[in-house]
Specification:
The structure holds 2 protein chains of 2 kinds.
Chain A (H helix, E strand, L loop, with lengths): L1 H21 L13 H26 L21 H23 L3 H22 L2 E2 L13 E2 L1 H20 L19 H17 L9 H9 L9 E3 L7 H10 L9 H7 L11 H4 L42 E4 L1 H15 L2 H19 L3 H9 L12 H11 L5 H8 L29 H6 L19
Helix pairs in contact in A: 2-3, 2-4, 3-4, 4-5, 4-6, 5-6, 6-7, 6-11, 7-11, 11-12, 11-14, 12-13, 12-14
Chain B lengths: L1 H16 L7 E8 L10 E4 L5 E3 L5 E6 L4 E5 L6 E4 L7 E2 L10 E3 L5 E3 L7 E5 H5 L6 H4 L7 E5 L8 E5 L14 E4 L2 E3 L26 E7 L2 H4 L10 E6 L8 E13 L12 E2 L2 E2 L11 H7 L10 H5 L3 E13 L3 E13 L6 E16 L2 E16 L2 H10 L33 H7 E21 L2 E20 L16 E23 L4 E24 L13 E25 L3 E12 L8 E12 L11 E15 L31 E2 L7 E14 L4 E13 L2 E5 L8 E5 L2 E17 L3 E18 L6 E7 L7 E6 L6 E7 L20 E3 L7 E10 L4 E11 L2 E11 L2 E3 L1 H8 L12 E2 L3 E3 L9 E2 L14 H5 L9 E3 L2 E12 L2 H4 L6 E15 L28 E11 L1
Parallel strand pairs in B: 1-7, 13-16, 32-36, 42-48
Antiparallel strand pairs in B: 1-4, 2-3, 2-5, 5-6, 8-9, 10-15, 11-12, 13-14, 15-16, 17-20, 17-53, 18-19, 20-21, 21-22, 22-23, 23-24, 24-25, 25-26, 26-27, 27-28, 28-29, 29-30, 30-31, 31-33, 33-34, 34-37, 35-36, 37-38, 38-44, 39-40, 40-41, 41-43, 44-45, 45-51, 46-50, 47-49, 51-52, 52-53
Helix pairs in contact in B: 7-8
Classes of the chains: A mainly alpha, B mainly beta.
């Protein structure tokens, strides 16, 4: 019986020490509070990757790229599932909101400022794709089904974020110092970030060109405080292994067909549409063996069997698709085209024309076109139309080429109402569209499955508020 | 006390090394039945000791015991008999127990109970049934042997990973394991399958395959809640209780088992052999493998073209050999026994350059320290692993490969390119060669594992026993995935654009400690009581480190120092559970049995406030034939049983109750900088335990002198408050939220029948049937959540399939794209289900209209499963064979999808035909438009683009969701027991030789590989079995068994 009581006591003892024995559920694989420098490296790098991600899909809508298969769903403006874009933008925005939160707690104003600018960039992209999107209730698990904010209200928030970001960057940074190694966009250069904030402000204000909120002087003011040369561009130049567009070209080389160029962009540059050969074209892709540049018509797919090359695609030595090509977010060249548009709306054709030519030149210089070729191009009568002949259509046309692969182009294309020479209705266009191009993305599958009660009901023809007919 | 234990250990180990102990008298004899027929395998024990032996094939035995000792003779189906030793010869006749089969089964916590006393279903599989033919994986070996268990084999991959689910999928969580707990000698052991580090789609081995089947004495399967109630949380999906062989007192016996088998792919897809390389019917020695002209036309253009095309699958998959050897020695005396074994298994895969090797050793012993105190222990060591290859990559390249070339001609042997990959086009410098891939890309796993137990039984006083058992399951898994980089030879066609190396180290450590006290008491003449209480502690640790690098300096030096872009990931988890349990069993007059259990668990994976949870069970068995007046003589035994049980379940994963930030941001590290992110899963700080409630009723019936037996079980279980990663709006800041949500219901029936239609002295025929069906339904997910994504598999363009859960629908739904159907009133269309029988909607161009919105096309959960096994014995010969049925389920075959897209599928032979699709135009008129199925401009002058097969057929998932029902001759074996007269001359006591075959015949409509093989290591994802599956094996084996 003595033995029995020992066992009994032992069991009681074990039972009471049980709680401590079981207190092992603190996760050793992470930290309760993250280093804000580590958040910054994530959100600077991956915001740029988000620009690529959106650009990958919109490049079919704006006919930079075309699927080698006939009836490609992006080519033909079908409803496509954009889970990847949506998820990545919101995931990074969640990390950005943490960066802002922890940055504030640690009085690291410069982190907060960069966070707000990147939040504006990500929200800007998502609003321009979908319209109404969750924001006020988003990011912090207030609810598992956040409500949607109106697109027009989102623009106010984007501008406020940029203004606040500028303000935060101009304040003293008392907490964690900004480190160049953790900032993949501007390497810890606060001035450069302020310029980028103004650049984005100019971009988003200019989106309102067709609305009654259009404010030309505010746009020009923002342009003035933004970039002065190509060296100011916000871009990613360091990659984990390679520029993602290089991965596209590499995949294509490995027969996972990808990065095929649309006949529309090729024809716009090879002289077919405009009668001028654009010297940037050989920097983008390689010609066929016969020296010609041939694109794939959107929706039609490839011509031949693929055993001999009959079309062009992004190449591993192209300007946009080399292993270390810069992945641009917003550029000096884009600012010049914004400036040109704004001046034109303000009636200042002279300044508009100067900015238009500078936009072309800046882009060509960035790409590395020879000076003589640049001069030949900008002096060509089809380009050098003179200040009295500068038109919105011409600015849009040149901006379209200069903004190759950038998702901002789909905003331009819609603001310009798909009004480009040579822009074709794709073969097999989505029959629901009645012969028109789509004006937005449908909400992605994840949102339809997980937040259906809040989801606005829209068609692909419903326009974002700035897309005024 | 301590000294005593020390001394006992000394004795214990001394015993192991000395087989012969104190000399006593040797008793010989024969055991036979009432007809005088010798009974082989009768257990003979010296009463109140652990000394024992069994009779040989001729019913003869020999045992050492002291004069006056009592021998107990027991044999299944016969009444046990006790005889006192009076001389050196003792012949015994055993009488058949016609009333009751005193079958003893091992139940939860290793408690052996008479089967008749149980209120729930258990099923026993004998060692003989497991090892009749050589298998490498115990889960595969169980296939067909357990009613209600669905085995998902990963096909013929070396090591043959497999999964098992008993009584249906119990969890909504797509990541839940759903597999039963494996318990070896009372200790739970890991059955993990990790694909981390490069093992995805390689047919990764599940860890229970480390159990050596030759060492198994018996295997009992506990299916329902009442059966597993004492085990608690970890056995919520059932339990497989394995008892390994122990030594028997008396003689020392040695066993040798050797087998060799010849393996080949059991089923490979058929291909068309008419059309060769090219596009749109035009011969072109380029990329497109099979859209060219006929071979005849091609030979006119290219005289070097082969006369007959290869079937790339038949050409690439090899036949292979597996060799196994097992040696064991066992013996002991009344003070102690031992069992020791060694084994080796070498298998070559049917994909070239793949293999699996296993080497193991085991030692087990029991020591009677006193009449009341027994110490036991055992330890297993296993080293297993081998080279594996990604089956998806292999099969995909076989489809691209132009079948006019021999895929085995995989590298240049001369010229400047000697030693580099030989493709199929562009002068053989393009078009990847999968055989070459197996030479330069390797994935190797190397597992070192120890599992074992140590414990004691102590009889404190009559009827009161204490037992303790400590268990260990420890393994390290060292994995290496490597790929050769460019050699630098000018013009080389590389298999990998860059070389790579990934090193993974896994350490897994499970510790269990179980203390149990039991009390037996005859309360009255008729009432018996057994009460048990126990205390159970379990700890699991998992530690993984993975380091990868790419871009090798020296193209074939697989050392991390030789690689760039080094990145590392690490995961450490630890969980613990503590349980207290109790059981009270009451029996009345040997016909009424009542068992009640309760268990309380405390789990580290739940928040402190919800950490403790308890759950009860009650079961009742009633042998009504004991009370039946006028029982007909042919009705031997009848029992009714019923049970009700609840099972609580903790969170399976660690760390689901708190949020942390991790330095694992996408795309990082970049340039030596880490990226921090919040995890995608949000923790629920209020997580609670899950609760499953199950009822089961059943009956066991035996007729005609036990020559016909029937066991029927019906069950229904509802698992609610399931801990589930609920997918939430990505805009909430997280992708998933782990919380209590959802309920799933399973109900089904299991029928086990055995019959002995013929039973004579020389000839026996025994039939065993296992039948089961299971109906599953997701009854609730969470408000606002319409469905849960389980998995998906890609198909060429748009023809991907996904597996999702919907409320009201069963597990295993397959969704995909489909042709639109015609509805007079389009509003009649079911938004979720494809109504396949509806006529097609035909477009203005004469082709069916494509619908890219995924709908439910099929379900991968079988309606019913059945196995019929026969054993025929004639004198020294025995023949066994079994037919396996799995009926009423579909699978997505993306192998066929790729074969259609590249012109290899046999049905693409009609590509030059005209056809009128049967269906209606949108305006309701019948389609009459004739269209051509070929590519380019048809004979009618219309341009058909890429043709029907590429532009329509291959884009619709529904064309590739196939009926996967099967019937097969699963196993067949013929055993010859060598006559005693012959073998005694060479000092053998038993010798047999077995010829066996596995998967000899298969009937199915499924056109891919064997539909039993699944590409997924998880039992939850069974819908997909196309491109990425390993073909199953057909094996022919010879096995030799010797005992001396």
């Amino acid at each position: 019986m003595k033995k029995f009581s020992i066992v009994y006591i032992a069991m009681i003892f074990i039972f009471f020490s049980c709680d401590k024995y079981l207190d092992i559920n603190d996760n050793p694989n992470g930290a309760i509070s993250p280093p804000i420098a580590g958040l910054l490296s994530n959100v600077t790098y991956n915001s740029a990757i988000n620009v690529y991600r959106v650009g990958y899909t919109t490049s079919y809508f704006v006919q930079y790229n075309a699927s080698p298969n006939s009836g490609g769903s992006s080519d033909t403006h079908q409803r496509i599932n954009t889970d990847g874009i949506w998820t990545n933008i919101y995931n990074i925005s969640g990390d950005i909101s943490d960066l802002i939160k922890f940055g504030k707690e640690q009085e690291s104003n410069h982190y907060v400022g960069i966070g707000k600018i990147l939040m504006a960039l990500n929200m800007g992209m998502v609003v321009d794709l979908y319209g109404d999107v969750p924001y006020s209730q988003a990011f912090n698990f207030e609810t598992i089904t956040p409500q949607y904010d109106k697109d027009v209200d989102m623009y106010d928030r984007i501008i406020s974020l940029l203004n606040e970001g500028i303000n935060d960057l101009e304040r003293d940074n008392e907490g964690v110092a900004l480190k160049s190694s953790n900032d993949f966009i501007h390497r810890g250069n606060v001035r450069a970030w302020i310029k980028t904030a103004y650049a984005l402000k100019a971009r988003y204000l200019n989106h309102l060109s067709k609305t009654d909120k259009d404010d030309v002087s505010a746009i020009l003011d923002a342009v003035n405080q933004s970039y002065a040369s190509n060296s100011d561009d916000a871009q990613l130049t360091t990659f984990k292994t390679r520029n993602p567009w290089n991965q596209v070209a590499l995949n294509n080389d490995n027969l996972e067909l990808d990065g095929w160029l649309s006949s529309n962009i090729i024809n716009a540059m090879n002289g077919e549409t405009y009668g001028v050969f654009d010297p940037r074209l050989p920097h983008i892709t390689r010609p066929l063996p016969d020296g010609s540049f041939v694109g794939t018509p959107n929706g039609a797919g490839r011509k031949g069997s693929g055993s001999i090359q009959e079309e062009t695609y992004l190449t591993q030595d192209g300007y946009y698709s080399s292993i270390n090509s810069p992945l641009t977010i917003i550029t000096y060249s884009e600012l010049k085209f914004i400036e040109a548009e704004a001046y034109l709306r303000a009636g200042n054709d002279n300044e508009a024309y100067i900015a238009y030519l500078e936009g072309i030149r800046a882009n060509m210089e960035k790409i590395g076109v020879d000076d003589s070729e640049i001069n030949d191009y900008v002096n060509n009568p089809a380009i050098a139309v003179g200040q009295s002949n500068i038109t919105n259509k011409l600015i849009f046309k040149e901006k379209y080429v200069a903004m190759f692969l950038n998702p901002e182009s789909w905003v331009d294309v819609r603001r310009n109402d798909y009004n480009y020479d040579g822009f074709i209705i794709p073969n097999g266009l989505n029959s629901d569209l009645g012969g028109k191009f789509s004006r937005r993305f449908d909400y992605p599958d994840t949102e339809q499955q997980r937040n259906s009660d809040n989801l606005p009901s829209l068609t692909l023809l419903d326009r974002i508020f700035w897309d005024v007919p | 006390m301590r000294k005593k234990i020390k001394a006992s250990f000394l004795v214990f180990f001394t015993t192991l090394s000395s087989f012969v102990f104190a000399q006593q008298i040797t008793v010989n004899g024969t055991v036979s039945d009432a007809d005088g027929m010798a009974l082989p395998g009768v257990t003979i024990l010296v009463k109140d000791s652990s000394t024992g032996t069994t009779t040989n094939f001729d019913g003869k035995y020999q045992i050492s015991a002291s004069k006056g000792a009592v021998l107990v003779f027991s044999y299944m189906g016969f009444k046990s008999k006790e005889e006192t030793i009076s001389g050196s010869t003792l012949n015994v006749t055993l009488l058949e127990d016609t009333a009751i089969l005193d079958e003893v089964v091992v139940t939860a916590m290793g408690i052996t109970r008479e089967k008749k006393s149980l209120g729930y279903a258990v099923q026993k599989v004998s060692s003989e049934d497991l090892t009749r033919e050589p298998q490498s994986n115990i889960v595969n070996a169980l296939s067909g042997k357990i009613a209600g268990a669905q085995i998902g084999s990963q096909g013929g991959a070396p090591g043959q990973g497999a999964s098992i689910v008993i009584r249906g999928i119990n969890s909504i969580d797509p990541n839940a394991d759903n597999q039963p707990l494996f318990i070896v000698d009372g200790v739970p052991i890991s059955n993990d399958t990790y694909t981390t580090g490069g093992g995805a789609l390689t047919g990764m081995t599940n860890r229970s395959s480390d159990i050596n089947m030759e060492d198994i004495e018996s295997l009992n399967v506990l299916k329902g809640g009442a059966a597993t109630a004492l085990y608690g949380v970890r056995a919520a999906n059932g339990a497989i209780i394995i008892t390994t062989k122990r030594g028997k007192g008396g003689t020392t016996t040695f066993n040798v088992t050797a087998s060799t088998s010849f393996d080949e792919a059991s089923k490979l897809p058929k291909v068309q052999k008419k059309y060769t390389q090219g596009w749109a019917g035009v011969y072109d020695d380029g990329f497109w493998p099979n859209f060219g002209p006929s071979v005849e036309e091609a030979r006119k253009i290219d005289p070097n073209h082969r006369a007959e095309l290869f079937n790339n699958f038949e050409n690439a998959y090899k036949s292979a050999y597996t060799k196994k050897i097992h040696f064991s020695a066992s013996g002991g005396n009344e003070k102690g026994t031992f069992y020791a074994s060694m084994n080796r298994h070498d298998q070559d895969g049917i994909i070239p350059n793949t293999n699996y090797n296993k080497i193991g050793a085991k030692i087990a012993g029991d020591m009677m320290i006193s009449d009341a105190f027994k110490v036991f222990g055992s330890i297993d060591y296993v080293n297993s692993g081998g080279n594996k290859f990604n089956a998806n990559s292999f099969n995909e390249r076989l489809i691209y490969w132009a079948s006019q070339y021999d895929v085995n001609d995989s590298e240049f042997t001369e010229g400047p390119l000697a030693g580099t990959q030989k493709g199929y086009y562009s002068n053989h410098t393009s078009g990847g060669n999968p055989i070459f891939g197996t030479k330069v890309n390797k994935f190797n796993d190397d597992v070192d594992r120890f599992f074992g137990n140590l414990g004691f039984n102590l009889k404190l006083f009559e009827g009161f026993d204490l037992s303790y058992r400590f268990g260990l399951d420890y393994y390290s898994d060292s994995r290496k995935a490597t790929g050769q980089g460019p050699t630098g030879i000018q013009g080389e066609f590389t298999y990998n654009s860059q070389g790579f190396i990934t090193e993974t180290r896994i350490l897994s450590k499970d510790l269990t400690s179980n203390f149990m006290a039991s009390y037996n008491k005859e309360l009255t003449d008729k009432f018996d009581l057994v009460a048990r209480a126990g205390f159970d502690v379990f700890q699991r640790e998992y530690d993984r480190l993975t380091t990868s690098g790419e871009d090798l300096d020296v193209y074939n030096l697989y050392h991390l120092s030789n690689a760039k872009n080094i990145s590392t990931s690490q995961l450490y988890t630890q969980t613990r559970t503590v349980g207290l349990y109790g059981e009270v069993s009451l029996s009345y007059d040997d016909f009424l049995y009542l068992t009640m259990t309760t268990r309380n668990d405390w789990a580290s994976t739940l928040p402190k406030k919800n950490r403790s949870f308890s759950y009860p069970s009650v079961s009742l068995g009633y042998i009504f034939t004991e009370n039946l007046n006028n029982k007909p003589s042919w009705f031997d035994y009848g029992k009714l049983r019923g049970s009700w049980a609840q099972i609580g379940k903790d969170a399976v994963g660690a760390y689901l109750t708190s949020d942390v930030y991790e330095a694992t941001a996408n795309n990082f590290p970049v340039d030596g900088v880490t990226g921090w992110t919040r995890p995608s899963n949000k923790a629920d700080f209020d997580l609670r335990s899950e609760l499953t409630t199950e009822i089961e009723i059943g009956t066991e019936l035996r007729f005609f002198n036990n020559r016909l037996g029937l066991d029927i079980a019906w069950y229904k279980s509802n698992a609610k408050d399931q801990i589930l990663s609920v997918p939430v709006s990505e805009t909430s800041g997280y992708s998933t939220f782990t919380t209590n949500a959802g309920e799933i219901q399973n109900s089904g029936m299991e029928i086990m029948l055995n019959a002995m239609p013929i039973k004579t002295k020389d000839f026996n025929w025994n039939v065993n049937v296992n039948f089961s069906n299971n109906k599953n339904k997701v009854t609730n997910i969470r408000d606002g959540i319409a469905s849960v994504f389980v998995s998906s598999q890609s198909g060429m363009p748009n023809a991907g399939a996904s597996q999702r859960l919907f409320v009201g629908e069963p597990y295993g739904t397959i969704l995909g794209t489909s042709y639109k159907r015609y509805y007079e009133n389009p509003a009649d269309e079911d938004p979720l289900y494809l109504e396949k029988d509806r006529p097609l909607l035909i477009g203005a161009n004469g082709f069916p209209v494509k619908n890219f919105t995924q709908k439910i096309i099929g379900n991968s959960t079988p309606d019913w499963m059945m196995n019929i096994s026969n054993t025929l014995r004639y004198k020294n010969l025995s023949l066994t064979f079994n037919f396996d049925f799995r009926q009423g389920f579909e699978k997505f075959n993306n192998l066929d999808n790729y074969m259609a897209g590249f012109g290899q599928a046999p049905y693409t032979l009609n590509r030059e035909d005209f056809i009128v699709f049967d269906g209606y135009l949108a305006d309701g008129t019948k389609n009459t438009k004739q269209v051509w199925l070929g590519q380019g401009v048809g004979p009618d002058g219309v341009n058909y683009g890429n043709g029907y097969y590429r532009d329509y057929q291959r884009q619709m998932t529904e064309n590739f969701v196939q009926d996967a029902s099967w019937v097969r001759l699963k196993d067949m074996s013929l055993t010859y027991n060598l006559p005693k007269s012959l073998i005694e001359k060479v000092a053998l006591s038993n010798a047999s030789i077995t010829a066996s075959g596995h998967n000899l015949w298969l009937s199915t409509k499924y056109t891919g590989f064997d539909p039993e093989s699944s590409s997924s290591t998880s039992a939850n994802i069974s819908s997909f079995d196309g491109l990425s599956a390993y073909p199953s094996l057909r094996s022919y084996a010879m096995t030799l068994r010797l005992t001396f």
